[in-house]
TrEMBL record:
Organism: Zosterops borbonicus
Molecular-function annotations in GO: metalloendopeptidase activity; zinc ion binding
Matching Pfam families: Hemopexin, Peptidase_M10, PG_binding_1
Cofactor annotation: Zn(2+); Ca(2+)
Protein name: Peptidase metallopeptidase domain-containing protein
Length: 494
């Protein structure tokens, strides 16, 4: 026990300290508050301390934080969360009834059109998700929507990269930050960041269905809601057992357009909307005859990755996984179910232990352990009760410590297998892993003895002797052993 733990502490001691957080936080916060409409005048960059404090307080009120009026850690954290890029307008004014000042359509029958498509997601499924997003609103109001496949439409949904002529303030910023924005009636435009990690299931990435549903709300005239559970609250939320629309959303849309003409409002739990993904029909479908199933994971991001003792890679996405052999040969996608019976889709993290030869899976607060295809007795366990982080970003078996390591945001946890539990002195700061960014999707120890971390299209190579990142790049095109032979030659779907 003492040996590995000393090694564990040494990892921390050896790691180079990183510089303090970047200066200019106050300026960043000011720009943020300007973008989201917390200052009354335009006056870019010329706000007094009193105006700044007042704007901060407004922001803290809208986001249910303590009204300190100070740029403290919870406020900075809140500002960094993924959200809608439309400003917070009237939701700032406490007590004002929302819904009317966004304007409204003078008619009840509206057409919509998806002008272009996000890269990597099957068109057919995006179309189903968009249809369901409109249906959410028509099911609780008198509105009716039709999809126009071409030509003009009242509401147009478009994916854009970076600056797209809505003003520099509204330029998209890649993964995280502003995910999308939309305009009030009767402009009929909703814009989505095409560089975001869109998904249609409950695993990693941003669920496109829920973001489309939110932006459609704006195109109908709804402003941001100060009600925390509302779909129209500015911050991204995950699908859950709750209805997607809260009472506040339903009242707001009925306030503008009235109740459904026949029957009563119909609502379904959010969880129902995680099944637009349908590999078999779509991947071979007419949208993409050229693409091979085996390298589908090469064109997108994945939920988790690990490697076994024979250097086979396991890559997980939604309800499927791929095996890439040591020779770089990728399998077709295989369903998680018979291989790991009882494992849910969209796992957060996975690691294969070199010590015990077992597979560990993590999702939410739970964990699963399999010897071969057999779920071990007592699993799934509530691992969060053992002090494990909920929704870990990445799991890794780390040879130097002969322990599992779980990464979550700015921290990591070292975990013993027998008995299963977090070692003392953890969590520690991610700074011990010099050069590693937070929020990686997965990691593995390669046969060259380096640890590779993955996030989106990027990889980071961590040298176990130097205890720092020594290289980074694009995994699909630069790491031949990821099995993406055709990643260079195939056209990205657009
Ligand atoms: C809308 O209501 C219909 C039943 O009339 C239901 O089948 C459908 O799933 C509902 N859609 C949404 C998005 O709630
Ligand atoms: C990849 O797999 C195919 C079919 O199983 C086999 O024919 C081929 O030789 C393999 N390639 C390599 C490089 O192992």
């Amino acid at each position: 026990m003492a040996g590995p733990l000393r090694a564990a502490l040494a990892l921390g001691l050896l790691a180079a300290a990183r510089p303090a957080p970047a200066a200019g936080q106050r300026r960043q916060a000011e720009l943020f508050l300007e973008k989201y409409g917390y200052f009354s005048g335009p006056g870019a960059g010329t706000h007094s301390q009193a105006e700044f404090t007042e704007a901060l307080r407004d922001f803290q009120r809208v986001t249910h934080l303590p009204l300190s009026g100070v740029l403290d850690a919870p406020t900075l954290h809140q500002m960094a969360l993924p959200r809608c890029g439309t400003d917070d307008g009237d939701s700032r004014a406490a007590g004002t009834r929302r819904g009317s000042s966004g304007g409204r359509w003078p008619k009840r029958h509206l057409t919509y059109r998806v002008v272009n498509w996000p890269p990597y997601l099957p068109q057919h499924e995006v179309r189903l998700a968009v249809r369901a997003a409109f249906e959410l609103w028509s099911n609780v109001s008198s509105l009716l929507f039709w999809e126009a496949r071409e030509g003009p439409a009242d509401i147009r949904l478009t994916f854009f990269h970076g600056d797209h002529n809505d003003g520099l303030n509204n330029a998209f910023d890649g993964p995280g930050g502003a995910l999308a924005h939309a305009f009030f009636p009767r402009r009929g435009e909703a814009h989505f960041d095409s560089a975001e990690r869109w998904s249609l299931h409950s695993g990693k990435g941003r669920n496109l269905f829920i973001v489309v549903a939110h932006e459609v709300g704006h195109t109908l005239g709804l402003q941001h809601s100060p009600v925390k559970s509302a779909l129209m609250s500015p911050y991204y939320k995950k699908l859950s057992k709750d209805f997607v629309l809260s009472w506040d959303d339903v009242l707001a849309v009925q306030n503008l357009y009235g109740k459904p003409s026949k029957g009563s409002a119909i609502q379904l739990p959010g969880k129902v909307f995680t099944h637009f993904q349908d590999w078999n029909t779509d991947l071979y479908g007419r949208d993409r005859q050229q693409r091979s199933l085996s390298t589908y994971y090469c064109h997108s991001f994945f939920d988790a990755i690990t490697a076994d003792g024979d250097h086979n890679l396991y890559i997980f996405k939604g309800s499927h996984y791929w095996v890439v052999t040591a020779s770089g040969n990728a399998s077709d996608p295989r369903p998680l179910q018979p291989r790991w019976p009882g494992l849910p889709p969209g796992i957060d993290a996975c690691a294969w232990s070199q010590l015990t030869g077992k597979f560990y899976f993590f999702k939410g607060g739970r964990c699963w352990r399999y010897a071969g295809s057999e779920l071990e007795a007592g699993f799934p366990r509530k691992c969060s009760a053992l002090g494990f982080p909920r929704h870990p970003d990445t799991a890794l078996y780390f040879q130097q410590l002969r322990r599992l390591v779980l990464f979550k945001g700015p921290k990591y946890f070292v975990v013993g297998e027998e008995p299963l539990g977090v070692e003392p002195y953890y969590p520690r700061s991610l700074r011990d892993w010099a050069g590693l960014p937070p929020g990686t999707a997965g990691a593995l120890t390669h046969r060259d003895a380096s640890v590779y971390f993955f996030r989106d299209h990027q990889y980071w190579k961590f040298d176990q002797a130097k205890l720092r990142v020594v290289a980074t790049g694009k995994w699909a095109t630069q790491l031949a052993w990821m099995g993406c032979w055709d990643a260079n030659s195939e056209q990205v779907l657009s």
